[in-house]
Amino acid sequence: MSETAATSSRFAWFKRIEPNAVLVKDLRQAGRNWTVAGAVLLMMAIFFIVSLAFLLGDEMAGRGNYLGAQLFGSIAGVMMAVTFFFLPIYVGIRSMAERSSASADLLYITTMSPARIIAGKFLSGAALVGIFFTAALPFMVFSYLLRGIDLPTILLTVGFLYCINCLLLLAAMMLASMGIHFIFKILIALFVGLPIILYTIGGVLMAGAFATLGGALTGGRFWEEALPVIFTVLLNIGLAGGLLFFLCVTFITPRSANREYPLRVYCVVMWAVVGLEAFIWALAKDQWEIFAGSFLFISGLLGVFGIFYSIGLEDHLSVRVRREIPRHPLRRAVAFLFFNGALSGIILCCLLAFSGLLIASASILVWPTLTGSSAHANDWHEAWQGFTVIGLYHIAYSLMALWVHRTLIPNRSALWPRLFVIVIILIPYFGAFIIYYLFTQDFMGDAFIPGIAITSFSPIAFYKQEEVLIHLATAVGLTAVALVFNAKWIYQRVIDFKPYERAEEPAATPPVDSNENPIPPKLD
């Protein structure tokens, strides 16, 4: 009896596990929906027809030496065409329907945290991806019975495709959670998502990728070559997935909360992890360029896209957020970077970008001490000059977009500066292009026009030193002018970042007894 009680108490913690309600709901809806079941059955029928036609056609033409790789490529192509398009559209449409104003209570009127909601929707989508992949896996493994491909290659490729499909699901959920009009969501999906999917399908179908993976595993080079590459790819996919996940959480978090805090903390962690990863690879290969190039690239990417994202944020701090502001001045200064607001986001992104540049520059001096070999940084001054030019131009344009928004349409949505910064970048360039063509009857080509960021790409790529330095001086001047225009706004945002103070109530006057005469008696 005591043993039974001890066993039941040992596993009692299972009873406290609560399943994700969103996961259960989505899986139940998908199971009852004939769209998903019909898509799986249709895909299996296509697999059977493609395999049968492929084998019969090859029997008539003569069996080749790479029939297995060709059959696997055909099956993988059909599977990617179905899962890469159908599942993100299915998950995105369902997420967008729940975020619409007619059914917004599904996301906001609940005791579940935003992270738990997004996790449930992602896990349900990942389960659907697994169902489609398990339907395709028997046909893929059948290609192993033919020549030209091995099992490690099949399993690695399927695992890679599964991770990419999960990233596409997160991207679709992020797009559905964004607070923009559905027409803009469709345009982003067509002009950004569709090319990414097509390039991914084309890259996976390359026969060279299959041969490289299989040879690395079966040729005795697993620990030296295959495992580090697999771990690096999985790490980077996980980092990208984490970024998309926190973006989804941020978009559905109420505006009254400090919705930017988890996203900004994750971006700092991701920046540090990628830098450490690049440094380890550089030490392993004894090539300083791997660390400098990779770290500078991720720093610039976070800086450019982070600033573009930050200028569309609201500056208002609710009472709920103000109660979380630290009272210590030093802690408050650090916390300012991780709280809601456009200015704090811009400053954090600038710190990440230019800190990456500073660390990469400092590593030139440390590298010979660590490895005993030279860093070979002969062209480093070209890299940091181009990085600085593009960064300063972007900062200046972003600050001017904020100033235009506050001056012209201060009561409109905070998302307008993102459109203004694109207009500020493109309109001067196309205006100069049209004027140049009208006067010369020729295309502008690699024209040198200081102040227009797009014309700085050619001097940076081919490093025309004089033009790069002029662009650098112009970018510094434009940034200074933008800071002057926004000086009052910057000062107000810094002063406004302070803890919430409850207003003092006025002292209550003592009550007057109605039986007493408030007028003092007259004395003779």
Number of helices: 20
- How many β strands by DSSP? 0
Helical fraction: over 70%
The biggest sheet, with number of strands, parallel, antiparallel or mixed sense and barrel status, is:
none
Shape: globular
* Percent range for β-strand residues: under 5%
Unreliably modeled segments: 101-106, 207-218
Supply the key terms:
524 residues; 74% helix; 20 helices; mainly alpha
What does this structure look like?
This protein is mostly helical and 524 residues long. It has a domain at 19-253. The protein is 74% helix and 0% strand. The protein contains 20 helices and no strands. Helix 15 (342-371) runs antiparallel to helix 16. The chain starts with a helix and ends in a 28-residue tail after the last helix. Mean pLDDT is 82; it is low at 101-106 and 207-218.
Short description:
The protein is mostly helical.
Produce the secondary structure layout:
Layout: H1 2-10, H2 21-32, H3 34-61, H4 67-99, H5 105-108, H6 114-142, H7 151-177, H8 182-204, H9 207-218, H10 222-252, H11 261-285, H12 288-310, H13 319-322, H14 329-336, H15 342-371, H16 380-408, H17 416-440, H18 457-462, H19 465-485, H20 487-496
